[in-house]
Design brief:
The chain is of the alpha/beta class. It has two domains: 273 residues, Zn peptidases (Aminopeptidase, 3-Layer(aba) Sandwich); 131 residues, Aminopeptidase i, Domain 2. It is 26% helix and 28% strand. It has ten helices and 20 strands. The strands form three sheets. It has a nine-stranded mixed beta sheet, with helices on both faces. Strands 8-7-10-5-6-9 form a six-stranded antiparallel beta sheet. A five-stranded mixed beta sheet has the order 11-12-20-19-15, covered by helices on one side. Strand 5 and strand 6 form a beta hairpin. The longest helix has 15 residues.
């Protein structure tokens, strides 16, 4: 696939995936188009060597794999489906001065300032009772711009550019509409109408929901020389898309090739669908077996955790270690931390460097400043849960956790070439 085609499909994936639920739905459709068979956790599995399968959990996490010989171990890639956002509260309606607003919670480490003055919409999953009294659920996406968080004019806050802070309780409830006299806002009634518009005419009552606001501005290739991709949720749907493409083009071999995309990384990963939960281990044991069989398989296995990395910002270059400032479109970043916030070590980093050279693509290193804190990924969590060699890498990004992030048009396509070689390794050199 050419770089241009790859980026067009990437942007289509990002646009179709405003929530983890939509991302998993989109990945399922793509995987099935390429010969992957769905599995259910509640069924017994009869796997065939060379078979292509996927399984989801709670609609928000997905594992896809090409089955090989369990004794040969696993070549695994990891990413996460969630991104920082604003989630709607259970009783969200706020009516002030004739405006309907919805109260929100901050999910993850949101960079709040860029959310102001954006054309927002609402998407997620809705639980409802049908007319026969059955509990059902449905994904929903309003799609149209239907909300905004207006900035306070500088005339009313003359020190806004120097001292303005953002109170997440009082300053960010989005404005949905103006209400007529004596009209009361009711989100659940709005959701019932939207469900009917999306074909769920059997909805009797909306019970609960998991809804997030998102920016309706579509992903775009930007820059004088088309160097950048600008989009919401690059952290970390970019890695989900890269891993999925590497798995799709993989030619089956003795080792099992696997992609896991977990929910809840942005809030610690400790959940039934997160990397600190049992989902991946449950699936691996169904492929490799329990006890000694699982331990032996893990000794022949490796995970490459793919998350985003902080590109050196030309206006804030002092926030990086002088020798470790990744540059956009200069290659995948190997992420190192002596205190194990990243799982990379000399073995796994060397392997990635070797594969990058074989693919004739560049790579870089990132180490945070010693006087600054360091984030983490699913890498150390998965390594701790399973006891296997792990590497943390990422694609250099500006504006991580903003409502619109920026990455390179070259880096993701290059990473697929490296991951393709990793998945094809019959044995690991360790």
């Amino acid at each position: 696939m050419s770089q241009q085609t790859f980026n067009r499909e990437l942007m289509a994936f990002l646009h179709a995936s405003p929530t983890p639920y939509h991302a998993v739905k989109t990945m399922r459709c793509t995987l099935e188009q390429h010969g992957f068979t769905p599995l259910s956790e509640s069924d017994s599995w009869s796997l065939k060597k060379g078979g292509r399968y996927y399984v989801t959990r709670q609609d928000a996490s997905i594992i896809a794999f090409c089955a090989g010989d369990a004794n040969k171990g696993f070549r695994m890639m990891g990413a996460h489906t969630d991104s920082p956002c604003l989630k709607v509260k259970p009783k969200p309606e706020i009516t002030r001065h004739g405006y309907l607003q919805l109260g929100v919670e901050v999910y993850g480490g949101v960079l709040l300032a860029p959310w102001f003055d954006r054309d927002l919409s609402l998407a997620g999953r809705v639980q409802y009772l049908d007319k026969a009294g059955n509990l059902k659920h449905q994904l929903i996406n309003f799609e149209k711009p239907m909300a905004v968080i207006p900035s306070l004019a500088i005339h009313l806050d003359r020190e806004a550019n120097q001292k303005r802070s953002i109170n997440p309780q009082t300053d960010i409830p989005p404005v949905i509409c103006q209400l007529a006299d004596k009209e009361k806002g009711d989100l659940r009634n709005l959701l019932k109408k939207r469900l009917a518009e999306e074909g769920c005419a059997d909805c009797e009552e909306v019970l609960e929901y998991d809804l997030s606001f998102y920016d309706t501005n579509k992903p775009a290739v930007i820059g004088l020389r088309d160097e950048f991709i600008a989009s919401a949720r690059l952290d970390n749907l970019l890695s989900c898309f890269v891993g999925m493409n590497a798995l799709i083009i993989h030619k089956n071999n003795d080792a099992t090739a696997l992609l896991v995309c977990n929910d809840h990384e942005e809030v610690g990963s400790k959940s039934a669908t997160g990397a600190q939960g049992p989902f991946l281990k449950n699936v691996l044991e169904r492929i490799a077996g329990h006890g000694e069989a699982m331990t032996r398989a893990m000794s022949h296995s490796m995970l490459i955790s793919t998350d985003n990395a902080h590109a050196i910002h030309p206006n804030f270059s002092d926030r990086h270690d002088g020798n470790h400032g990744p540059v956009i479109n200069k290659g995948t970043v190997i992420k190192i931390n002596a205190n194990l916030r990243y799982a990379s070590n000399d073995e796994t980093a060397s392997l990635f460097g070797m594969l990058s050279r074989e693919a004739a693509v560049p790579f870089q290193h990132f180490v945070t400043r010693t006087d600054m804190g360091c984030g983490s990924t699913i890498g150390p969590l998965t390594a701790g849960e399973l006891g296997l060699r792990t590497l943390d890498v990422g694609l250099p990004t500006f504006g991580m956790h903003s409502i619109r992030e920026l990455a390179g048009t070259q880096d993701a396509h290059d990473l697929v070439q490296v991951l393709k070689r990793f998945l094809a390794m019959e044995t690991l050199p360790f």
